[in-house]
Amino acid sequence: MLKYRWICHLCEEVNGPTSSICEKCGFPAVASRNDLDLARENPTLKTTQHVNTSKQTPLPKKLAGGFALTALIFGVALAKLAPPVWLNITGLILIGLAFLALWALGFAGKRKDA
């Protein structure tokens, strides 16, 4: 629940802190840019039809990204700090695999939505 008065992004009506949707047009207080563009393009859309179109990263992808980042950090530590040469090489291979995994998951490289 909001603790301040807010202005609707769609109709610019001032709303009280207890409302989560606009009192005039019914647009939600928290909405993505896509929701706002959709509502502006189609003004006949009923307020109950506003759909949150923001994309969230699924949990398995977040976990895989976390493991890849952990592997990256561990690989850097092995490549820099391990005295035997074979551990340095293992660290470099781990760094490469971690970057490959991050790229495949979409955490590194060019973003499609940017």
Any overview of this molecule?
With 114 residues, the protein is mostly helical. Helices cover 46% and strands 4% of the residues. It has helices at 33-41, 59-81, 85-105, and strands spanning 6-7, 14-15. A two-stranded antiparallel ribbon has the order 1-2. A hairpin with a 6-residue loop joins strand 1 and strand 2 (14-15).
- Low-confidence region ranges: none
Shape: elongated
What is the number of strand segments?
A: 2
Overall helicity: 40-55%
Number of helical segments? 3
Distance between the termini: 31 Å
Estimate the strand proportion.
Answer: under 5%
Q: Output the strand order for the largest sheet.
A: 1-2
Question: Can you give the mean pLDDT?
Answer: 80
Largest sheet: 2 strands, antiparallel
Computed Rg: 23 Å
Give me a quick take on this structure:
By secondary structure, the chain is mainly alpha-helical.
Note the main attributes of this structure.
single chain; 114 residues; mainly alpha; two-stranded antiparallel ribbon; 3 helices; elongated
